[in-house]
Amino acid sequence: MKEANKLKVFMIIFFSAMGGMLYGYDIGIIGGALPFIKLDLGMTATQESFLGGSVLFGGAFAILIGGILADIFGRKNVITASGLIFIASVFMIYSAESYHFLLFSRLVQGIAVGFISITVPLYLTESVPSLIRGLAVTCFQLFLTAGILISVAVSLPFITKNVPLIDTHTVTLNGHEYDFKGVPVSISKDIKLDEKVPVDVPSAEAILSEAPYTLKEQLLANQVNIDKSITLENVPVLNGEQGNWRVMFSTALIPGLIVFIGGFLLIKSPRWLIMKNREQEAEKILSETIGVDAAKQQMQEVKALIEKTKNEGSLLSSLTKRHYLAPILIVFSLAILNQMAGINSILQYAPTMLKQTGLGSVYVAVIGGVVITGINFLTTALAVIIADKMERKFVITFGTLMVSIVLLTLAVLMYTMPDTSAKGMALLIGFILYIFFFAIGPGSYIWVIMSELLPTNIRSKGLAVALFLNSMASAILASSVMPITQYFNGNYGVILGVCGICTLVYSFIAFKFVPKTNGRTLEEIEQGFIK
C-alpha cells in the first residue's frame, strides 16, 4: 500500500464498519431492557420472544431487497439511508406506549440493520485492497461486538436498585388469581380507577395491559381499600429493581448519527462503478486505494470477468452451473448454521437466562452480560489482528468444533445441576468459553468468507439471499427460545443442545468444503471454482 491513500482507506473501513456497531447495538440493548419492558408494558413469554426476534425478522426481509437496492443506487447510498432509518426507529421506540407499536418500531430498526448487514460487507469486500480485505471486513464484526458491549454496559446506569415493589398481593377474578407481586408501589398508586388490566395473563408484569376488567373491579373483588388515587393499603413491600428502557434505547442515536453523517464521506465501490460502466471513476478510486499500477491491472481483471459472466443469467439460473452452484451452496449453508450456533439468541437473552438459572438479580445478570460481551469484543479484536495471518478456513473449522463441545457440555449441565447460584455461574463460565471460540472463529470471519466465495456477477444477490437465510434462522431461533424453554419447565438444555449439534455440522462443512482464500484476489477465488 505504498501508493495508497491510507487515510482514505481508513475512512472506508471506519465509517462503513460503524454500521456493524448499529447491528451490535440492536442485538445487545434488548438484553438489559427486556425485563423492564416486560414490567412496563406487560408481555407473555411468546410476546417476549417475538420482541427479541422482531428486529431479526425485519432485517431478514430488508436483506432480500438490500442487495437489489445496493446494485441500483450504490453501496454508499444504501449505507447512508440505513443510518437515517435507524435514527427514525430510535425515536419510534422511545415514544412507544404499547407492545404492538414497540414491536413495529423494532421491525423498522431491523430494516435498517438488514440493509447494513448486506451492504457493508459487500462494500468493504469491493473497496479495500485484497491484502487487508480480511482485516477490513473483520472490523465490521469488531465494531458489531463493540456495539453489543457498549449497549449492554450503558444499560447499567439506567437500572435503579432498591425500588419499593409489592411483595405479595393477589386478586381473584373468575376463579383465577392475579398476582401484583413485582409491581412498583409508585406505579400502583398512580393507576387510574378505570384503567383496564388483564384477566387472561395472571402475572404482575401484565397489570398495565389492556383487558376487559378495570383495576378498580379487581381491587374491590379482593376487598382492597382504595381512594381516588388508588392507594393499596397494608401491602407487603420488598426492595427490587426498575430500569429506564426508553433511555437505554435512546443512546443508540449516537452510532446512528455517525453512520448517517459518515456515509456522505465514503467513496463509491469501484466494482459497482465498473458494473455501471463508469470506468474512469472506478480507476481513479482504485488508484487512491491500491496504487496506479495495481489499479490498472485490477481494472482489466474485473472488466474481463464481468464481460465473461454478464450473460450468465440470474441467481436462480446460476444454480445450473457447477462453478456457481458449489459456492452458493457452501455460502447458504454457512449462513444458516452460523446463526443456528445460537450467537444472537445467547447475546440477547444472556441476562434473562443467567437470572433465571440462579445468578441473582437483573443487575447482577446484566453485569454477567457485560462480561460475556466484553470477552466477545476482546476476542474479536484478536481476530482482527490475525485476520490475514492465519488461514480463515482453519480458524472457522477449529472455532466451530470448540463451540459445539462447549454447547453440548452446557446442555448436559443444565439438566444435571440443581437451580442454584452454582448453576448460574456454570452457565456464565460456559458462555464465556462459547463467546471466545465463536468470536475467534466463525463470528469474525463469516462475513468475509461469504463475500469472498460468491462470484462477482451474483455477489450482491447471492449475499442478500445468504444473509436473509442467516437472519431468518436467527429470528426463528430467537423467537423460539422462551416458548421452548417454558415448555421444558424453564430448562435451557434443549436449546443449547440443538445449537451444539448444528455447530458440529457447521465445523464439518467448513473443514470439508470451504476453500482457502487468504491473500487471493476475488477473481482468483472465483477461477478456483471454475476449474
UniProtKB/TrEMBL annotation:
Record keyword Transport present: yes
GO-annotated molecular function: transmembrane transporter activity
TM ranges: 12-37, 49-70, 77-95, 101-123, 135-159, 247-267, 324-350, 362-387, 394-415, 427-450, 462-484, 490-511
Protein's name in the database: MFS transporter, sugar porter family protein
Keyword hit for Transmembrane: yes
InterPro entries: MFS_dom, MFS_sugar_transport-like, MFS_trans_sf, Myo-inositol_Transporter, Sugar/inositol_transpt, Sugar_transporter_CS
Family membership noted in the UniProt record: Belongs to the major facilitator superfamily. Sugar transporter (TC 2.A.1.1) family.
Source organism: Francisella philomiragia
Upper taxonomic lineage: Bacteria, Pseudomonadati, Pseudomonadota, Gammaproteobacteria, Thiotrichales
Entry keyword set: Membrane, Transmembrane, Transmembrane helix, Transport
